[in-house]
UniProtKB/TrEMBL annotation, chains A, B:
<feature type="compositionally biased region" description="Low complexity">
    <location>
        <begin position="296"/>
        <end position="306"/>
    </location>
</feature>
<keyword id="KW-0808">Transferase</keyword>
<dbReference type="GO" id="GO:0016301">
    <property type="term" value="F:kinase activity"/>
</dbReference>
<keyword id="KW-0418">Kinase</keyword>
<dbReference type="InterPro" id="IPR052519">
    <property type="entry name" value="Euk-type_GlcNAc_Kinase"/>
</dbReference>
<feature type="compositionally biased region" description="Low complexity">
    <location>
        <begin position="274"/>
        <end position="287"/>
    </location>
</feature>
<dbReference type="Pfam" id="PF01869">
    <property type="entry name" value="BcrAD_BadFG"/>
</dbReference>
<feature type="region of interest" description="Disordered">
    <location>
        <begin position="274"/>
        <end position="312"/>
    </location>
</feature>
<protein>
    <submittedName>
        <fullName>N-acetylglucosamine kinase-like BadF-type ATPase</fullName>
    </submittedName>
</protein>
<feature type="domain" description="ATPase BadF/BadG/BcrA/BcrD type">
    <location>
        <begin position="6"/>
        <end position="256"/>
    </location>
</feature>
<dbReference type="InterPro" id="IPR043129">
    <property type="entry name" value="ATPase_NBD"/>
</dbReference>
<dbReference type="InterPro" id="IPR002731">
    <property type="entry name" value="ATPase_BadF"/>
</dbReference>
Length: 312, 312
């Protein structure tokens, strides 16, 4: 029976699970709802992780899982990590311990095989971590939508809405009004306050789309967002170490990422995170007590290719 | 029987009601919860206004009310102002029509007897209005805590919390940690997200208090807040017209107001809003069909004194 390695990546919006065999071939994959213990509570987070794990394992034998690792958003705030990892093991019905990492560690490992460097995760939120030996050594940003996250998807969406309120007739303004299904800019305010604040991140793709059409306002918002993200990297990175870009804003093509790469042109090597769930599976393989025979962190992927299925 | 004039000022947090007689003498006063129809709904807002009116009238005869005016937060978003005013009249049990004004108009009238000028209301939120003949002609800011309100009490409180998270050992940082009853800066984030976002405005007075003790961080936050408010004024004001400062941040002594006055030193005359409920009562008197005998907008007060009871 082939040994299997189960990797999970749990973000605020989505949880991804991947099963690799010892040769690095993908044997299963699944997507479930977000599993951040800060937002969902520890019990809810374990339940969603277990859903993703069970779906990825499909008809495979959980008893064949020789290693398992989880990259978890909300890791820092988790009070009892040992208990959480043990609850995961029980819920996944596997015999091997579950290794728990901050989501920054799996995102970093999804972009480089180096042991130390910096990872910028800019999706709905924005945070930058300097990672060393599977731990977060330094950290900037990540204050959330209420307190910061400048340059994040939330921030881009909020700037788009502010712009549309002031200048409803430009490309970006019209796109925002259309998205919000309102006719007059004053109606944008009730729309903004009617839902959960993080909903403003829905508007971030409109910045991308209209910037691609050359809209000067969208380009200005994107450039300012990139400045914020570059400042986050500069506050966190250690000179000469690699930088990994992850998340829908920093890790996907678009004007923010393009400008960010320009601003960080003097930085060392920059790569893009591939699939953090697969990276978690590889970390599990590398840490497997079976040793050398297990899947190493480099197997089955091109570092920095950013082309892994399911990335972003 | 003496004729009475009823004035109300309805904000997001508080509703104030004042009864003046035709000589301008105060005959009643009351405070009730906020009555913003955007937040409370029209029905809830009318109910709270009626509570305040009834309490201010006390044992006085509502039939003696010869004029009534309400300055209303959320006026702009109110769909049917005629119906709202008529519901107020019925709920107040008075025979005279209720004049409805934006809260900016009553705040402006509480600071000057001029017909046209600018009023900056910076309390929990921040908005600037150019007022002319009892109407708002131009408007800036007022986007609310989620979208803007830079320089407002919410913004000052959020900046104080951000600073405390980064620098917990300064005067301001320690004051914030103490207010939030937490020991470590990381605990400030759960505190911030646990309550309604506007609760961050609670921290604004800590900026005032520690700035008064010379804390450089608090002084820097206050100075940046004042820059934002001055920009709002410059975007709105018409040259040469008077400026009225209102609200707990702009209208009360403190480092933001002090810096704001420096920044606007080249502006025309600047005064401080007194009591907007009394100003509403005077507007009602001035508009009274009884004409010249009624309480005029200048009676019973020193314009710009900012010393009226219940101001701020």
């Amino acid at each position: 029976m082939s040994r299997l390695f189960l990797g999970l990546d749990a973000g605020g919006s989505w949880t991804r699970a991947v099963v690799l065999d010892a040769e690095g071939a993908e044997r299963g994959r699944a997507l479930a709802a977000g599993a951040n213990p800060t937002a969902q509570g520890a019990e809810g987070a374990v339940r969603r992780l277990a859903e993703a794990a069970a779906a990825a394992l499909g008809g495979l034998d959980p008893g064949a899982v020789a290693g398992c690792a989880v990259g978890l958003a909300g890791y820092r705030a988790l009070a009892d990590r040992t208990a959480f990892a043990e609850r995961c093991r029980a819920a996944f019905a596997i015999g091997t311990p579950v290794l728990l990492y901050p989501d920054a560690v799996t995102a970093f490992a999804a972009g480089t095989a180096e042991a130390a460097g910096t990872v910028l995760i800019a999706g709905t939120g924005a945070a930058c971590s300097q990672v060393s030996e599977r731990q977060v050594a330094r950290f900037s940003g990540g204050l959330g939508w209420l307190l910061g996250d400048e340059g994040s998807g939330f921030w881009l969406g909020r700037e788009a809405l502010r712009h549309a309120h002031a200048e409803p007739n430009g490309l970006l303004g019209r796109a925002v009004l259309r998205h919000c299904a309102v006719e007059r800019p004053e109606e944008l305010l009730p729309w903004a306050y009617a839902g959960p604040p993080r909903r403003l991140a829905q508007l971030a793709p409109l910045v991308n789309a209209t910037a691609a059409q050359g809209d000067p306002a969208a380009l200005a918002v994107a450039a300012e967002g990139a400045e914020h993200l570059a400042a986050l990297v500069r506050a966190t990175a250690v000179g000469g170490e690699p930088l990994v870009l992850a998340g829908s804003v920093a890790g996907s093509p678009g004007p923010v990422r393009a400008r960010l790469l320009e601003l960080l042109a003097d930085h060392g090597p920059i790569s893009t995170a591939g699939d953090p769930a697969a990276a978690a599976a590889r970390l599990a393989g590398a840490a497997s007590p079976d040793g050398t025979g297990a899947l190493g962190p480099d197997s089955g992927r091109s570092p920095g290719s950013g082309k892994s299925p399911g990335s972003g």
